[in-house]
Design a protein that fits this description.
cytoplasm; OB fold (Dihydrolipoamide Acetyltransferase, E2P); 3 domains; DNA repair; four-way junction DNA binding; DNA recombination; five-stranded mixed barrel; alpha+beta; hydrolase; 40% helix; 8 helices
Length: 200
């Protein structure tokens, strides 16, 4: 089993990145591909093996990977559902919701209904202390400012990424007009803001 791959990100799309290492390009599905940049970096990976496919899932931090592994151990949550949960931001936010038994927060994720949210709380409450540090760290952190390019393709990339996470066209349409009114942002920031609106 792989722990991480160190290589160069050569492609970033709405669903995955391509990580090149020793002349091999690995297709890696991630919660938010636009959180990565086209440079050399270490990506924590989880290999998911099914009868019909071998899929690599990638994460920026070891904490994200550990939470992903915990989430897919819950009955009713597959890898795609776990990615959608992780795309919301830091693992600490999800851990905090589980510890507080906040079902109403958890059911806002695509593919998570009341039954699955209850199962998450039942299976994971009290078992996530090693997944994330302080569950309140970063809750009030300022978004980092990045200079935006002159052409605005970032919003459309962000909307495609939200669609890839499983949000419906209706949900995306509901927030897209609000995102258009925002000051220009990077794709990553649009995704984070969109998730904030979807989960708010």
């Amino acid at each position: 089993m792989y722990e991480y791959i160190k290589g160069t990100v050569t492609f970033i799309g709405p669903e995955y990145i391509v990580l090149e290492n020793s002349g091999i390009g690995y297709r890696v599905l991630t919660p938010n591909p636009f959180a990565f940049v086209k440079t050399e970096q270490q990506v924590f990976v989880y290999q998911h093996v099914r009868e019909d496919a071998h899929v690599l899932f990638g994460f920026a931090t070891a904490e994200e990977k550990r939470l992903f592994e915990k989430l897919i151990s819950v009955s009713g949550i597959g890898p795609k559902g776990a990615l959608a949960v992780l795309a919301s931001g830091t693992p600490s936010h999800v851990v905090e919701a589980i510890e507080r038994e906040d079902e109403s927060y958890l059911i806002k994720f695509p593919g998570i209904g009341k039954k699955t949210a209850r199962q998450m709380i039942l299976d994971l409450k009290g078992k996530l202390e090693h997944v994330a540090g302080d569950p309140f760290s970063g809750l009030f952190a300022e978004d980092k400012e990045e200079p935006a390019p002159s052409e605005n393709t970032e919003l459309s990339e962000a909307l495609l990424a939200l669609e890839a996470l499983g949000y419906s066209a209706r949900e995306i349409k509901r927030i897209s007009s609000r995102l258009e009114k925002e000051e220009k942002r990077s794709t990553d920031e649009y995704i984070r803001k969109g998730l904030q609106l979807l989960l708010g």
